[in-house]
Amino acid sequence: MTPAARVQSAIGLLDEIIAAALGKGPPADRILADWFRSSRFAGSKDRRVIRELVYRAIRHCGPVPQTGRAAMLALAQDDPSLLLLFDGSTYGPASLEEGELVAEAGIAPGWLADRLAASDIAGAEARSLLDRAPLDIRVNALKADREVLELPVRGESLPTAQGLRFPHGTQVEQWPEYRDGRIEVQDGGSQLACEAVGAAAGETVIDLCAGAGGKTLALAAAMGNAGTLIAADVDRGRLSRLGPRAERAGAAVAETILLNPGREAETLEAWRGKADAVLVDAPCSGTGTWRRNPEARWRLDPAMLDRLTELQRHLLGLASGLLRPGGRLMYVTCSLLDEEGAGQIAGFLARNDGWSAVPLPLPLGRPRGQGLRLTPHHDETDGFFIARLDKPC
């Protein structure tokens, strides 16, 4: 493919990604994967360049671009070599016309940038949300140990019990250590959130929003498969992936529970008042994960954020009923917005007498309200809010 043809292909893909973001369709990585699978004329170098162009444009544009061409022209304002490729050549972009639409650069849509700023995420803090993330793994303590495990590439130790960091794009999924369950891909901040739970052998621990089980597996390793670990979620598809992952990791999950939205308490009645710890890894805006999913900021709107904060409040109430007296509720979101983090904890404490927020002795993060916040800028992890609430005895 010619350089101009690559740019035009990136523009077409951006059109699809913009439409999917507005219509809550498939994510950018799936759109790219489908296009690469069907476009056999694109060689490996073509695919690499097109992917890079697409994600550079996504990161560059704050508000949702009007078109893929407008997004690419915005990127070209900072890269004049791209402008030369808008020359009307065969398979390339049409020639430039006077007064063409150019998308707006920025961190996020205006309303969302304002919400972040109100949560003290601005300037360098905000810009770091769109950096490229490294690849972090957790060595599975059920099968191996970081200190002695030999991997094809030497990783950098993280300030977690079993974490290692590799450059972006490292193909760890191709390693035998990944295939046999000795390592799992997990961001360092996510690993710290699991360690904050303090799950121990012999305890009853509930992962209330388990999803595909990334944190569930970390909890099983922390417990040494000695105790009762429950994984619950409302998403059948994601929860169905936990079984094969747990088998590969050698992780013992006592029960996997599919919840009925709005009727979760009924399904979990058998566990009411019995858990030593409940992890609420709550559905959220994902503002802390934009390094990996930059188009996610185009999918969020104020109404969706309101629905998410109401769901988080509901889940905190649900989790509180599952704990025994003296048990601990761990609340985690991969969001940097206060209404999904410090604000949720303040609201819970105001509604529930006798509960106490407990400081977290983690090696990274800074206090935010009654919890701890990790950010890409300060901690080189995804963005997280983590808090511990202890139930009165």
* Main beta-sheet annotation: 9 strands, mixed
Q: Count the strands?
A: 13
pLDDT average, as an integer? 96
How many helices does DSSP assign?
16
User: Secondary-structure element sequence?
Assistant: HHHHHHHEEEHEHEHEHHEHEHEHEEEHE
* Overall radius of gyration: 22 Å
CATH architecture classification of the largest domain = 3-Layer(aba) Sandwich
CATH class category name of the largest domain:
Alpha Beta
Briefly note the CATH topology name of the largest domain. Rossmann fold
* Dominant shape: globular
Q: State the share of residues found in helices, binned by percent.
A: 25-40%
Judged by helices, strands and strand pairing, the structural class is alpha/beta
Strand content: 15-25%
What is the CATH superfamily label of the largest domain? Vaccinia Virus protein VP39
Provide the number of structural domains: 3
Low-pLDDT ranges: none
Please give the alpha-carbon distance between the first and last residues: 68 Å
